Amino acid sequence: MKAAVINEFGGPEKLQIVEVPNPVLSDKDVKIKMKASSINPVDWKIRKGFHKYTLGSNFPIILGFDAAGEVVDTGKDVKKFKKGDLVYGRLDKKFGKAYAEYAVGAESVFALKPEKLSFEEAAAIPLAAQTALQALRDKGKIQKGHKVLINGAASGVGHFAVQLVQLFKADCYAVSSFRHKKLIDELKPDVFIDYTKENFKNRSEKFDIIFDVAGTETFLTCKHLLARGGIYITSLPKPKLIYHKLVSLFTAGKKVKTLLMKPRGYELDQINQWISENKFRAHIDKVFPLEKIADAHTYSQEGHAEGKIIIKIG
Ligand SMILES: NC(=O)c1ccc[n+]([C@@H]2O[C@H](COP(=O)([O-])OP(=O)(O)OC[C@H]3O[C@@H](n4cnc5c(N)ncnc54)[C@H](OP(=O)(O)O)[C@@H]3O)[C@@H](O)[C@H]2O)c1
Predict the structure, then answer these.
(1) All residues at 6 or more sequence positions from 136 whose CB lies less than 8 Å from its CB, including other chains
(2) Is this model's pTM higher than 0.85 or not?
(3) Tens digits of residue pLDDT in 169-208
(4) Contact in structure between 139 and 257 (CB atoms under 8 Å)
């Protein structure tokens, strides 16, 4: 099959389209013919070698975590899916391996693709939307009436977070630049803060949750904005995190929490429900064919994507 691989860590030019063996299916896995994937910053961070000490470097590496496609084979223990099902999910394999014509993932990471979504729209959702859900619901314990600030509100994770804050009937303060004003207007947060004109850290409100999607701040720079018992959530742990956790012991119950998203198909079932009620959607910035994967990585690394960058396969 055709896949985008890297044979060494480095820049986007290291991504090459080559022929590789088909992925091997284990008993609990579903094999899909890939139709679309998406770019997540972790893909190019792995490509640059940032995770080489934790993930290793057994080249050739196929990157990509988000997958949408058609089931072509199932392991003997798979119960939920059958050949011909159209599914999507965040692959659980090391490095993901979604930038390819065929991919495998545990049955537990997939859900059926809603009919109303294209494969491109479906591939936009798993990693980023589940990150937003797990941050707000599991780490932030979001409640109706909470005041929630999303720093990086137009990003892949951020634009899903803004929608979830509203689904949980909390008040949403969305921080982004004017570049994404049109999308932000469509998402209708309670307050839009253009970070090129205003520093949100000078606001007088107190927040129950600050989700620092962009990772430009820390618990220490935001703690004055937290209400009593408020939670600062980051998906980009900083080297001084342990010190920040110690400081939080002396801040009237204010907390700092980190997140490492987990792939869970049952969460996509919940998201499917919101999609069917027109309460949740993916915003697609650009679509690149697999052959242009290096351009897609370059674009993502520039750091100004609006919603998701999609890879169309086949
Ligand atoms: N730990 C985990 O499990 C996990 C999971 C998912 C993601 N992450 C991490 O979370 C981060 C965000 O991921 P993503 O997919 O949302 O990234 P992304 O879509 O690539 O982020 C791009 C967005 O960041 C915004 N941005 C850049 N600088 C900003 C600033 N100073 N203030 C506010 N917004 C700013 C940009 O808006 P402007 O154009 O307005 O600057 C753009 O919309 C990444 O570092 C990723 O690796 C971690």
Answers:
(1) 142, 148, 161, 164, 165, 168, 209, 211, 233
(2) yes
(3) 999 999 999 999 999 999 999 999 999 999 999 999 999 9
(4) yes
- State the Cα–Cα distance between residues 271 and 284, nearest whole angstrom: 17
Taking the C-alpha atoms of residue 132 and residue 126, their distance in angstroms, rounded to an integer, is 10
Residue 98: name the closest of 150, 13, 32 by CA: 32
Rounded CA gap, 171 and 145, in Å? 6
Cβ(42) – ligand 1 distance below 6 Å: yes
Q: Is 288 helix (H, G, I), strand (E, B) or coil?
A: strand
Residue nearest atom 33 of ligand 1, based on CA coordinates: 152
Does the residue 265 lie in any domain?
Answer: no
Ligand 1 and 197: CB distance under 6 A? no
Least Cα distance to 4 among 291, 286, 271, 223 occurs for 291
Residue-range definition of the domain harbouring residue 60: 2-125+282-312
Say yes or no: 38 and 142 in one domain: no
Number of domains observed in the structure of the chain: 2
pLDDT in tens, 216-259: 999 999 999 999 999 999 988 777 888 888 888 888 899 999 99
Give the position, in ligand 1's atom list, of the atom nearest the Cα of 39. 15
Pick the atom of ligand 1 nearest to 237's CA.
1
d(CA 95, CA 112): 23
Shared domain check, 114 and 143: no
Atom 8 of ligand 1, nearest CA residue: 235
Kindly report the protein residue whose alpha carbon is nearest to atom 15 of ligand 1: 156
Find out whether the peptide bond into 23 is cis, omega within 30 degrees of 0.
no
Q: Does the CB atom of residue 40 touch ligand 1 within 6 A?
A: yes
Are the C-beta atoms of residues 204 and 226 closer than 8 Å to each other?
A: no
For residue 167, give the CATH number of its domain. 3.40.50.720
